[in-house]
Structures are given as C-alpha cells and as structure tokens.
Amino acid sequence: MIKKITFLFSLLIISAFIAQAQTQNLYFPPKTGTVWQTTTPASLGFCPERIDSLYHFLETHGTKSFILLKDGKIVLEKYFGAFVQDSLWYWASAGKSLSSFMVGQAQEEGLLNIENPTSQYLGAGWTSCPPDKEALITVRNQLTMTTGLNDNIPATPNVPDPDNCTTPACLTYLADAGTRWAYHNAPYRLIHNVLEAASGKTLQQFTKSHVLDRTGMKGIWLDHIMYSRARDMARYGLLILAGGRWDTDTLLHDQTYFYNMVHPSQALNKSYGYLWWLNGQESFMLPSIQFVFNSELVTNAPPDMFAALGKNDQKIHIVPSKGWVVVRMGNDGGFNGPGGGQVPIAFDNAMWNYLNALECTPTAVVSPTDARLRVWPNPAVTGWNVEMVSSIDRVVLYDLAGRLVADNQGDGSFKAFVAAENLPVGAYLMKVVSGAVVLWGKVLR
After folding, report:
1. Which of 140, 288, 350, 365 is least surrounded, with the fewest CB atoms within 10 Å of its CB?
2. Which is it for the CA torsion 330, 334, 339, 345, positive or negative?
3. Residue 247 to residue 193: CA distance in whole angstroms
4. Helix (H, G, I), strand (E, B) or coil at 142
5. Which strands sit side by side in the sheet containing 394-399, from one edge to the other?
C-alpha cells in the first residue's frame, strides 16, 4: 500500500512539473493565414553580425529553411536558394516524434495500450519469429527501438531495402524484446499500422483530426514519411514545447505518457525516449552500431534540449529552459561523424556553436520561477544557496554550451550550496533534482 501511495505521489509530482512548464507565457499563431508574431533578435541581445555568421554557416551546409522560435514567436526565419516559405520538404525520421505523440493520444482515448503485444493489433505472425518470442514484443518496444528484431539483414535483389521492409520474412528474431536497443525503421513503420488498426482510421485521417486541424499544421504522409513546410514543423515543435497544448486546446492530457516520451525510456540507450532523442544524459547509442558513447548526445547544446532528428539533417530542437524551438530542413550538412546518414549529430554540434554565440549583450537574469525552489544570491560571487521544499538529491551546473561544470550530491537536507568562486563570470544553467522532480533555472556568476 505504501509503495502504491508513493508511486501515485510521484505521478502527481511529475504531472505538476509538466503542468508548470505548460503555463509559461507562450504565443500560438492563428490556425489559418500567415500571421505569426515575432520577437526582435535585438530584444534577446543577438548581434547582427553573429546572425549573419549563423546564416552563412547554414547556407554553406545544405540548409533550405531555418526557424528559431522564442516562446512561440519567430525570432529568426530564413530560406535559402529557391526554397521559400511555402516550399515542402520531408521530415525523414524527425517524423517519428509525431508518430509517438499520436500513439499517446490513441492510448489516452483507450484505443490501444503500449504495454500490449503488437500482435494484438497486427495479428499473430506479423514477424517470422517463434510465436513465444513474437508475443514478447509490445507497442512500447516499437516506441523505444527495443523489439529485438534483426536490424542487420543484408539487402538482396528481391529486398533492396531490408531496414524498411515490413513483411514477416524481413522481421526475424535476434534477441528477446527489451534486451537490445537498435535503431530499426521497419518496426517503427508498423506503429502506423497499429494506429490504423486500433483507431479504424487511416494514418492521414488520424493525423489530420488529432494534430493538423487542431494546430493549423499542413502536411502529408508519403511512404511513412511526413512532408510539410518549415512553419508546420515549427508549429509541431511549439506544441511539444507547450507540453501537448495548443493555446486553450490540450491535445494530450496524459502527462505521464508525455513525460516518458521525452525522458529516458530504457537503460540501454539513455538518450532515447519514445522516438525522441534526448540531450543531457550520460551516454547514448546511434544507428547501425552496437556501441555506447559515454557522453551527452550533443555536447554544445543545452542539457535539457530534446530533439526530433532525421536523415540528411532534418531537425526539431526543443529547449525548455530557453523557450526555444529550432527547426532546420535541407540536404545533408556534410559533416562526418557518429550517426552516419540516418541520425547525424555532428551538424547539431556545429550549429549550436553558432546558436550559443548569438547573444552578445547580457540579458536580464532569469531566476528559477518555481515556488518550490529558491536560489540566492543571483548573481553570485562566491556561490549560490539552493533551497527546495523537498530534500535535494543533486544540483548540477552547466555552462551555456552544455558543458558540465559542477555536480553536487545532496546530503538529504532541503538546502545545498554550489561554489562559484572558481568559475568564469557568465551565465549558467542549474538543474536541481529531488526525487522525480527536476527543476531548471538560469543563474549568473
């Protein structure tokens, strides 16, 4: 009984945390027309010459469109070459994030349960696995890339693209579901089949009624890949920044699902949620290789950033601590590095070098605003006093490039002190952890 009460209390804390994030003062553009309010770069302390440097970097690395939102308003919007505001482009695997969100909606409506076996929706024999092994695979395994199906089947003349082949012959057993992480498109694509079977609607119909019409987005799925304009991608990023809300319309009430979607979903790849990529974790894995990298996913980005990432550098970056949504569409940025062509992250690191450099004048101090947390003095000289209404487990400090600069373990009390005297003068992001609650604030030295 005590465990059950503790679990329910934890869920309430999670819900309260996300609800608090949703109440930030966000702007939502009208669902029709092209009106979209803007925020001037100067009001954020951006230097014009540094904006030019960012645009030059983007243009010389295959970018077709770029948008930066701050609290929902457009700060930067740029199109390159023949690409214009109404041009369509593909999301590639960044569209996986949209599928994940819609699965949450379907579960909330009682149409499916992600803990159920996939065969409950697709029928037995949807793979060529032994029946007892197929029965282990759940919808949640599809969301977390842990189906255990073989992701390394060689191509043949009859099956030139086995990674996207969804016939039973292409879906073979390699490991028990939940014991192996591997980025595998075929089980992901079958999430769309699960949605259709559970809802009785086509993928296009479900997307239109559940997301597009309610946010003003336009888009179309072609061969399981979403195509849209850059602003539609930005609208989706704003929906996620708002915790699944569009103005007064809440598209996803199940905040436990939302929280799990954008937090580590399993221990194998700690930088992966439900089809979302997560920064700020201690390790990550990437497609095609069974190797664990012992670092954050995008070291130059803020640690609270999470992202929808797609082939040839399609990006939606969401940074709650900044109120930012960053969208990039285009061709391969041309950076070699981990992730290969499927989920390239070298471009992300390079882009964040320019994003971090945009601010050239100090802005007002943004202190932690949650009533459960006090940090003082701010700015600090020797250090910050940190106080919460619950015991502090950990206080972590990052610079604005996302680098870890301090990591203090709590002693079980409600107070902590973070030394600052050996840190360079500047702004830092502070993460305070208390059980299931994680709060962020901007502090100055």
Report:
1. 365
2. negative
3. 30
4. helix
5. 404-409, 394-399, 427-434, 437-444
Structure tokens given for 56: 């030059």
149 within 8 A of 171, measured Cβ to Cβ: yes
Beta-sheet strand order (sheet of 383-388): 373-376, 383-388, 415-419
Q: What is the edge-to-edge ordering of all strands in the sheet holding 89-90?
A: 89-90, 225-228, 220-222
Contact predicate 199/191, CB 8 Å: no
Alpha helices in 136-229 (DSSP H): 139-144, 185-199, 203-207, 213-215
- Taking only the tens place, the pLDDT of each residue in 306-358 is 999 999 999 999 999 999 999 999 999 998 777 667 788 999 999 999 999 99
Q: What is the pLDDT of residues 53-69, one digit of tens each?
A: 999 999 999 999 999 99
Spatial CB neighbours of 94, under 8 Å, sequence gap ≥ 6: 226, 233, 308, 309, 310, 314, 315, 316
Q: Which letter, b or e, does each residue of 169-196 get, where b requires 16 or more Cβ atoms within 10 Å of its Cβ?
A: ebbebbebbbebbbbbbbbbbbbbbbbb
Q: Which residues are CB-contacts of 364 (< 8 A; sequence separation ≥ 6)?
A: none
Both structure tokens of 408: 């203090």
Strands 220-222 and 225-228: antiparallel
CA distances from 306 to 185, 297, 316, 413 (A): 20, 10, 8, 30
328 three-class SS: strand
Q: Which two tokens stand for residue 25?
A: 């003062």
**pLDDT tens column, 103-157:** 999 999 999 999 999 999 999 999 999 999 999 999 999 999 999 999 999 999 9
Handedness of CA 237, 238, 239, 243 (dihedral sign): positive
Whole-model pTM: value is 0.79
Q: Which of 226, 258, 1, 228 is nearest to 98 (CA)?
A: 226
Number of H helices, E strands in the chain: 12, 18
Q: What are the distances in angstroms from CA 89 to CA 71, 311, 331?
A: 24, 12, 10
Structure tokens given for 173 = 């057993």
Among 380, 376, 443, 444, which residue's Cα sits nearest to residue 415? Answer: 376
Name the β-bridge partners of 46: 359
